[in-house]
């Protein structure tokens, strides 16, 4: 735990993905005090035509403006010429419900900054969803996190 799924546009090289995975693992280990072998990261790359926000598809040349619409009726947008969209990311995290809000706030901020660095997504195009569960709803190697010896038993192979 946790399982971190990153949906993004194809923008990172193999080396950048390695560095991104290492950086997310290091960040999570240091902040949440989770042992590294329990952190799993999946990167899923989707083409721009498979992304949408505010009713606009990311492959549309006007996506930067259209994806920042704040009012459907007036089509008012907060887009400025300086704001481009060179990437997007949706991060879904499944994790045990053992962390306080302050820790989650710090983690989300640092994950957002790191994701922006690697995916080139502006901050407003990075969405992070944390789905918390009780440890008993998490299993590995045939044992759930409710077991007091989960760490040692889950390392059975």
Would you kindly provide a brief summary of this structure?
By secondary structure, the protein is of the alpha/beta class.
Structure description:
By secondary structure, the chain is an alpha/beta fold. 29% of the residues lie in helices and 23% in strands. The protein contains 4 helices and 8 strands, in the order βαβββαβαβββα. The strands form 3 sheets. It has a 4-stranded mixed β-sheet with strand order 2-1-5-6, covered by helices on one side. Strand 7 (139-140) and strand 8 form a beta hairpin. The radius of gyration is 18 Å and the shape is elongated.
Percentage beta strand:
15-25%
Head-to-tail CA distance between termini: 17 Å
* Rg calc: 18 Å
How many β strands by DSSP?
8
**Order of strands in the sheet with most strands:** 2-1-5-6
Q: Tell me, rounded to a whole number, the average pLDDT.
A: 94
* Secondary-structure class: alpha/beta
Number of helices in the DSSP assignment: 4
Helix content: 25-40%
- Largest sheet data: 4 strands, mixed
* Topology pattern, helix = H, strand = E: EHEEEHEHEEEH
Q: What is the overall shape?
A: elongated
Instruction: Indicate the low-confidence ranges by residue numbers.
Output: none
Write the SSE topology.
Elements: E1 3-8, H1 14-32, E2 40-45, E3 52-53, E4 56-57, H2 63-66, E5 89-96, H3 101-119, E6 126-133, E7 139-140, E8 143-144, H4 150-153
Parallel strand pairs: 1-2, 5-6
Antiparallel strand pairs: 1-5, 3-4, 7-8
């Amino acid at each position: 735990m946790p399982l971190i799924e990153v949906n993004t546009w194809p923008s990172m090289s193999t080396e950048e993905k390695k560095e991104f995975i290492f950086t997310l693992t290091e960040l999570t280990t240091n902040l949440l005090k989770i042992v590294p072998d329990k952190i799993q990261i999946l990167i899923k790359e989707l083409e721009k035509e498979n992304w949408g926000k505010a009713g606009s598809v990311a492959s549309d040349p006007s996506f930067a403006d259209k994806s920042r619409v704040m009012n459907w009726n007036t089509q008012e947008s907060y887009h400025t010429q300086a704001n481009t969209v060179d990437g997007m990311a949706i991060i879904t995290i499944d994790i045990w419900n053992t962390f306080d809000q302050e820790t989650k706030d710090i983690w989300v901020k640092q994950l957002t900054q790191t994701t922006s660095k690697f995916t080139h997504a502006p901050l407003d195009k990075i969405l992070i969803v944390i789905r918390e569960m009780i440890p008993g709803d998490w299993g590995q190697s045939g044992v759930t996190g409710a077991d007091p010896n989960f760490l040692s038993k889950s390392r059975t192979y």
